[in-house]
Amino acid sequence: MKKELLWIFFVVVISLSYFKIPALISYPNYWPKPVYNFNNNPITADKILLGKVLFYDPILSQDSTISCASCHSSYVAFTHVDHPTSHGINDAIGNRNAPALFNLAWQKKFMWDGAISHLDFQVLAPIANKTEMGSDLKTVLQRVNKNKRYHELIVKAYKTEQLSGEQLLKAMAQFLLSLISADSKYDRVRAGKEQFTEQEATGYALFNENCASCHTEPFFTNHDFAKNDLPIDPNLNDLGRYEITKNKKDSLHFKVPSLRNIAFTYPYMHDGRFKKLADVLNHYQTGVSNGDARLPAKNHLTSRDKIDIIAFLMCLSDNGFVQNKAFQFPINNFKQQNP
Amino acid sequence: MYFRLCVLFCWFFSFARAQTTIEFIPTFQHKTVTFNQVFSDSIQLHAFSFYVGQIELLHKDKVVKRYDTYHLLTLNDSSKTTITLNQCNNQAVDAIRMLIGVDSATVEHGVLAGDLDPMNGHFWTWQSGYIHLKMEGEIIRNQSEKKSFAYHIGGATAPTNTLQTVTFPFVKRGNKLVVELTIDPLLNWIAATNDYEIMSPSPAAVAFSGLFQQLFKPIMP
Predict the structure, then answer these.
(1) Which domain CATH number covers A171?
(2) Is B88's pLDDT higher than 70?
(3) What is the pTM assigned to this prediction?
(4) Is A204 within the bounds of a domain?
(5) Mutation test of the interface with chain A: which of B104, B119, B124, choosing the one with the most A Cβ atoms within 10 A?
């Protein structure tokens, strides 16, 4: 009898531990497995929470005015809407448009030029960048370890009093990993719960013909770099992927962005040069110069096609994601005043 | 297979296990360099640090022991100038091989603790990669012109791979292997190129890293 109870106990524990992971990181069955190795950074609710509070905390910036959320707002799928390129401390203007943040567990390289090759290291870049937060990891750790807001969060997440650099980066990576957007109309159609209108279906077919080789389902990116024939901005002189690889063939190649939540994430492109999707489609109609064979040929898209494609792109909006309270400002953690 | 046997052997005779300390001493023209003090009338060194990893002990060109850990040596901090290796006492070793820097596989693993923690300031922020070697200081050129120099050498993949593997004789004094780190070739770089700063993976960084081969000279007992 005792033995049986023990067995039941084991089965319960094992199945609980099994269900715990999908609850925090869950995704549709037609998605591939994440590329992020969760074994090196096992997800827990406490670590995600610690990462979230850090994400929203301006003490990460040198003058305590800018948090990650200043440039990555949950209401617009974690991008920055009001400026073509992002604004940091002292109103310094960066030279790139803040990308939307979601489904990062499936992404291998980060930044428009792929400068960051692992999500764990992503947070270092804005903290140190002079036009973003202008601080450094050591200073941030000293502030965080001294701040009362964090004491309990750190103890719960890591059973320690003092957070290390490794732990801080991993906790922030966990919050970023938890940002999964998988409930757009497109997903509901795939799950058989909804149907496209006729126009959306036409747009989907046109999209598959002209766009999907780079903006590939189900992430609407092939997670690669490409040149989509945007003319170079002589003021920014940004050569994209070349800046990292120093390989001539990568000149003017940029990360292929996901088109999920594209209705929320204007302005568009690495420098935010287009305000509207109509501008983007005009570019793919008349701005292309037949460099990359995957791009539609010049003047191949008709005015009608452009409208239909935009109708389909609207099906990639995940309202549940941008309204998800779990991703928003953790007000309770910021209520108590700090020394 | 050989490693495993060796490990087993070490474990079995753990009472016979010894530790070897490797100490690095920076020198210029064969004199020990004191940090933040003028030497050779014109040069001051403020910082010198580098990663060492993938250490292998060799006997007759065969690997007899390999270590997986990386060490960050900071010669301007007297508490961080040595590496301690656990080793079998009765093992014949005639040479040591080590990687100067941190390879790309370690970067792809994600953030790590200890000497590899990015908090040590030896990891670039604007791109993912460790700085293999840092040298910073000041030099007086043409009698009075004071110029600072800073070399942050990194890059772990082609075409800007600056990783270097160095091999030198394993000659111990007691339990200690003292390695002279002759910085002469690195300082000669300034006169040869007039290049006072390397801060990213680049062709210059690759050329600079080629000099690492000349730096490590064990002091004969």
Answers:
(1) 1.10.760.10
(2) no
(3) 0.87
(4) yes
(5) B119
